[in-house]
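Re: [help] complex structure
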Amino acid sequence: MTSPSHTDLREELAALAETQPFSPDPSAWDLGRRARSRTRVVRAAATLAVVALVVGVGAIAVRPDSVGPAGGIEPDGAIPSVITTPDGPVITDLAIGRASVAYVDSDGSPVLVDAATGKASYVDLPSFPEPSVIERTADLVTGPLLAVSPDGRRVAYAATVAAEGPAGQPAFSTPWYIVLDLTTGDFEFVGVPLGTGTPRAISWTTDGRLAIDVYGRQTRRDQPPSVVARTIDVTTGDSAASALTGMLAPGGLISATYPVDDGPVQAVPFEIAEGDVAGRDLPTDLYPEGAEVAPVGWAADDLLVAHVDEDLVVLTSPDRPAAESTWQVLVPDLPESSGVTVAVDLIPDLTGDPDQELTHDFTATPMGDSSGGRALYVAGGAVVLMAGVVLMLRRVRT
Amino acid sequence: MTDRSGFDAFVRARGPALARTAYLLTGDHHLAEDLVQAALVQAAKHWERIDTSPEAYVRRTMYHQNISWWRGRKLAETSLESYDAPVPATDPTIRLTLEQALRRLTPRQRTVLVLRYFEDLTEVQTAAELGISSGAVKSMSRDALRRLRTLAPELADLVGADT
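Output below.
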């Protein structure tokens, strides 16, 4: 392969760039300075919050027994309260233990969030589709491309590759699925069920099978084929037809269906066993014009985690009485992605307390640290800090 | 010179160049405007604390912001014919083909190409700007060129040909 001609390519790029007629104006200054003022106010509030946190941690130190981080959240890991974009090297040793979150970023690169540290990293997954393949399949895919298992110990994805269509046009095909064990870094190939192709979406059932949505057989030329669902036993490779498309709830009697387009909806869509559809209305005060909704996983029999606009939300399914309905933001402001999944086992059972912590702030306290000894130091520091403030106030008065 | 007047002078002097780079990064004239303005707002916000040159800061902000603007980009990439006023060129066919092929690269591939072949940065410098390894830059650059060749074989003379 030869190298490109730098000069020629640069000249063509420069000529192309010259077609940009826009010249920015300095009005950005006013916007930037206003944003700066707002940031300062927020920082002041954050400083107060940190002082409150220090005092709170001090209070933890005097408790006889430490409970798990974030008030008893899963001790081996947790969903982070903030899901960041990766900023370190690509991880090639995939035996990371447990992942709390998996997503494919806007460039088509797979990202895992370590359940024990909350750190997001790019991962070098074997046979993961190239970004160009992901782009090529964008019109087909409706759900997650990378699915983390409920316990966070495995991830699964379709090993889709580029192919050539009958008339030479760009196409793609999926020869198998890959299930990767994050505790060992080993992976296994799982065959594609007979008669199926590249999946539109892939997820895990709560009992450890893969649930896929695929196109069924085309019966009319003027209409696209219908979407059918199958489950795959990842140990044996056996597959079975599923009555419901989408993300299956425990027990398989209801599913949360994937969006058919990118537009906003007024209700979270579900499919129930009888073949009917149902919806859980979005809170109109929060989403007066609807929202884009995609299912992420089932935290309990009747508790769905969904991606609603920019947030991860926990909500009750429509088969629950309205009086028992819940709508709680789990993680706000997700990074841009083409589908996110979470290890739903890491979400604690809801107690009904609106202040219950469902996620862990890894920037405040590292997961797995014993709060006792360290918190004693922090509490001591807080006392010194407060004493310093008192001294300063006295000096000011005199 | 006050902060404000310094900022104004910077925008007047370097704004058009920033806009040109933004267009190559985004492949869309309107997105390019948004990208430059967003980066300038960031620069204004942190003006006192910019310890490199303001242009380096704004450019780096643009590179990273561009990569994270996927949804808007995805929409823009579907409207390949949205702009129809290219400047006269020695070979307008090649230029139009290049323009359309660039839009079909991923944002990261396009950013790497722009940094390497428009900004003339080395692999190491590109890696530093994007916060990735030199190996990743090399790999993305190779993939991007290969993709351009696949999308538009007539660009072979420009981007190198498979032998």
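Chain B touches chain A through 66 residues (CB under 8 Å).
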